[in-house]
Amino acid sequence: MPRIMSVENLSVRFASRSGQIEVVKDLNFDLWTGQVLGLVGESGSGKTQAFLAIMGLLARNGRAEGRALLGDVDLLQLKPRALNRMRGREIAMVFQDTAAALNPTLRIGIQMAEVLALHHAVPLPQAELAAIDMLDMVGISDPERRARCYPHELSGGMRQRVLIGMALMCRPKVLIADEATASLDATVQAQILTLFKTVCDRLGTALVLITHDLSLAASIADRMMVMYAGQAVEIATTDALFHDPRHPYTRGLLASTPAATVTRGKLYTIPGPPPRLLEGERGCRFNPRCPHRAAHCVELAPILRPVALDHQVACHFDIGGASQ
Ligand SMILES: Nc1ncnc2c1ncn2[C@@H]1O[C@H](COP(=O)(O)OP(=O)(O)OP(=O)(O)O)[C@@H](O)[C@H]1O
Ligand SMILES: [Mg+2]
Predict the structure, then answer these.
(1) 9 Cβ closer than 6 Å to some ligand 1 atom
(2) Gyration radius (Cα) of the chain, Å
(3) d(Cα 100, Cα 277) in Å, to the nearest integer?
(4) pTM for the full model?
(5) Which of 78, 79, 98, 123 could make an SS bond with 83 (beta carbons 3.0 to 4.6 A apart)?
(6) What helix, strand, coil percent values describe the chain, rounded to 5?
(7) What is the CATH number of domain 33-51+170-323?
(8) Is beta strand 223-228 parallel, antiparallel or unpaired with respect to 231-237?
(9) C-alpha span between 156 and 62 (Å, rounded)
(10) Distance 263 CA to ligand 1 centre (A)
(11) How far, in Å, is the centroid of ligand 1 from the Cα of 41?
(12) Could you tell me which residues come within 8 angstroms of residue 311 by beta carbon, excluding any fewer than 6 positions away?
């Protein structure tokens, strides 16, 4: 399975009144053709900012460092125009907010066609036909008729499908879905997840599924990355993460999300104060909340290290499943 993207030592800092805050710190991970990476972590852990940085869409007080290699192109080094050409064509991102993402004054078929016309200089009539095909692919029935609708004429679930279809018009190598199904009811959510999976299989797209909902991510992700306070604390195959979680934070997450009590859109809370992100702080960022804390956890930041094939953990202790 070829590797599509390698993110190396990605850090994101914002200038703030109390100094530099480092909301993403030394993130390292790879994306593979046709695979789904589930990204979980509590609110504020840096999931969105990490990918906005990769897309070149950080707020003005933000700076990204490191490398985000798509093939051999480092997205973080591209000039705005070059990056603009890559966005949508090679890498695309879908958000939850459907209302703001579609132009209310344009029929959806045209909106989708324009993406293709813009990036690939496809004549508009031909691009409109491609849009109809895409509507069909994202599971919208009667696509010719729907293509002539305005956004407000569609249900929320359909609009979300349109957005996903729009993101896929140029067959991007990487698709980032940031809480893209969070506003939808459970049935539509399940349909869209199935759609994601089909699309990854059919087009070879690598999908990053960012979500608060562990069980949702687990339902389609091949691998999972758990973030805490801007860092990846555990990266593993989905199976290993659920059956052999190694990081105390991951264990906390799993323990506090029995499937039946998951409240949609809300993640568990782990006792203890929220992490501070000011630069220059020492030690493991999870230590104030960690049940296994020892003296050196306060002094020394653990690095992500392999504990098994396809399984990396950032913790000083080997808290393997067998010992617990
Ligand atoms: N422009 C900004 N200036 C300063 N801090 C910011 C800015 N934008 C985001 N942040 C901070 O970056 C941190 C990470 O935010 P991010 O949106 O990536 O979290 P998240 O993991 O996506 O959370 P959620 O699950 O709620 O979407 C937060 O502490 C947030 O307050
Ligand atoms: Mg977010």
Answers:
(1) no
(2) 20
(3) 30
(4) 0.90
(5) 78
(6) 40, 25, 35
(7) 3.40.50.300
(8) antiparallel
(9) 32
(10) 22
(11) 12
(12) 234, 235, 236, 237, 240, 244, 246
